[in-house]
Write a structure and sequence with these properties.
Layout (H helix, E strand, L loop, with lengths): L23 H15 L3 H13 L6 H12 L3 H14 L4 H13 L3 H14 L4 H13 L3 H14 L4 H10 L8 H10 L6 H17 L3 H19 L3 H14 L2 H6 L10 E6 L5 H9 L4 E3 L5 H10 E2 L5 E2 L7 H18 L5 E4 L8 H7 L4 E6 L2 H9 L14 H21 L4 E5 H6 L1 H11 L46 H4 L6
Parallel strand pairs: 1-5, 1-6, 2-5, 6-7
Antiparallel strand pairs: 3-4
Helix pairs in contact: 1-2, 2-3, 3-4, 4-5, 5-6, 6-7, 7-8, 8-9, 9-11, 10-11, 11-12, 13-20, 16-17, 17-18, 19-20
Length: 508
């Protein structure tokens, strides 16, 4: 989610203008590249930046410009190296060091990310963005006390930094209606000049506070406010998603799948954890990542982005074409390239998890290109799942259905229809795991999970909450706790307010 907050103060850079170390010709070429970049002509900008980088210019801006384009086009490794080169040219250059820290976070290298943010703060203690992002790394590591302290510092330094209020609320337990943070957020929310995105963050944070206090009507009032603001900004309609789901079901039918002559990659390294948002995918990944043979890679967009690029037809609203229109080499490229990406993340672990929930939309491609990959499907009571989605302010704009109860219910119906289809065309290839059964009696469910993934039993999987590692999803707090059941049946607390959802939601 973007936040229209004030920009953090920026320390003076060692190289303030590209022209300081560029020839007049190079300066003109840099300006042309920067202007092309600004107007969205990325092909021209990339070419021009590359020429300057190839000339080993001694200013950081061309390296950062090229890195930004690489990052935007899913070339994260190249972007990472370019930010490193920018810092070699100009140590301490803020844009490069901030982006390099973020890149380390994406690589799950929290130590290097924290080192970057701490160097920035040592040079400029006023940089609230670096302080906030350092807090996020600590939060992802489960170091909640240190993260909370940093968020409080940010809020004291810049009270309208609403993202810090929102994130702090997620790890702070509200026990008293007189908690000063509640009063501070309510006062800030009253400001008529507060931008919409900031109002959304405060509304969701206040909903969390009143839920902690058991004040369900007031919690829902703030949920309704935050979701309403987001829903208005998106103008979402279920129709395009319904068309997409129907296209997937028609494309990956039993007859056309059987007619394909594609061997696929033989590797069984990937374990895909799929399901509806907020269905327990983070919990299941944390359990699997507690096994000595498994590396928890988190929510990877590699497979989804690669599948969309290779198989979605831009001339037909980015839908799939008939399966027999794709050459076998295309499926081979998907599987091979994805496995190469996994190798760059971790070359040692025998198995890796990928818990992007909506890889379920790509399950047909996964079964063709990676037939030995394991598929784990997380299942949860639809009412709890949909309420949990409504309670969450997502940091991505990909889930536009998620801010209206009617839309959430209808989208959940589409999801269930698609999963029924996948079970029909891939019988016995998808392991369903029930959130309710897992939390009520963990050991037998975890034993079945490990068996389905062809992993030997390890008792350490029962103590998943003690397993180190980054958790960057909305379940960052829950998966650091021992197994609990207090989220089961939570929808009943809000039942009086959920009629638009209950009217459309299909139940078993």
């Amino acid at each position: 989610m973007s936040s229209k907050r004030r920009k953090a103060s920026v320390p003076p850079q060692r190289v303030s203008r590209p022209g300081a170390a560029l020839s007049p010709q190079q300066q003109a070429r840099f300006q042309a590249a920067a202007q092309a970049h600004a107007r969205g002509d990325l092909a021209y900008a990339e070419t021009a930046y590359r020429v300057l980088v190839g000339e080993n210019v001694r200013v950081p801006q061309p390296y950062c410009g090229l890195a930004a384009i690489c990052a935007r086009s899913h070339r994260a490794d190249e972007a990472h190296e370019l930010w490193r080169k920018a810092l070699n040219v100009a140590p301490g250059y803020l844009e490069a060091e901030m982006n390099l820290a973020g890149s380390y976070q994406q690589r799950n290298d929290s130590e290097q990310a924290m080192a970057c943010y701490r160097r920035i703060l040592k040079r400029d203690p006023r940089n609230v963005q670096a302080r906030y992002l350092l807090g996020n790394v600590l939060k992802a590591r489960g170091e909640f006390r240190q993260a909370s302290a940093l968020y409080r510092q940010v809020m004291a330094q810049q009270p309208d930094y609403t993202q810090a209020h929102f994130t702090y609320s997620g790890i702070h337990e509200y026990r008293d209606p007189a908690d000063p943070h509640i009063a501070a957020m309510r006062k800030l929310l009253e400001s008529p000049k507060l931008p919409v995105d900031n109002r959304v963050q405060l509304a969701f944070a206040l909903a969390k506070a009143f839920e902690d206090l058991g004040d369900w009507p007031r919690a829902f009032r703030y949920l309704e406010m935050g979701n309403g603001l987001r829903h208005e900004s998106f103008h979402y309609s279920i129709d395009s998603d319904a068309e997409m789901f129907d296209n997937i079901i028609r494309t990956f039918n039993r007859e056309d799948l059987a007619a394909l002559e594609v061997e696929g990659q033989p590797s069984n390294r990937p374990i895909f954890i799929i399901g509806m948002l907020r269905s327990g995918t983070s919990l299941v990944e944390k359990i699997l990542a507690s096994h000595s043979d498994v590396y928890g890679a988190g929510e990877l967009d590699y497979l989804f982005a690669l599948g969309a690029r290779l198989f979605h037809d831009p001339s037909n609203r980015y839908l799939f074409k008939p399966l027999d229109s794709y050459p076998a080499s295309q499926f081979d490229e998907l599987g091979r390239t994805y496995l190469e990406k996994l190798q760059t993340l971790n070359g040692e672990a025998r198995r890796l998890t990928d818990k992007l929930p909506f890889n379920l939309l790509m399950l047909g491609l996964i079964r063709i290109a990676l037939p030995n990959a394991k598929i784990v499907h997380c299942v949860r009571d639809p009412r709890d799942t949909c309420l949990s989605i409504y309670r969450q302010s997502f940091t991505t704009q990909n889930y536009r259905f998620a801010y209206d109860l009617d839309s959430i219910g209808r989208f959940h119906n589409l999801y269930r229809g698609l999963m029924k289809h996948w079970h029909d065309v891939f019988p016995g290839k998808i392991h369903d795991i029930s959130y309710e059964a897992l939390t009520a009696d963990p050991e037998p469910e975890i034993r079945r999970l490990l068996e389905a993934c062809e992993l030997e039993w390890q008792a350490g999987c029962l103590s998943f909450h003690r397993t180190p590692g980054l958790v960057k999803t909305a379940s960052f707090y829950q998966v650091r706790q021992p197994m609990y059941t207090r989220s089961v049946g939570l929808w009943k607390k809000y039942e009086a307010f959920l009629q638009p959802l209950l009217d459309v939601l299909e139940l078993d």
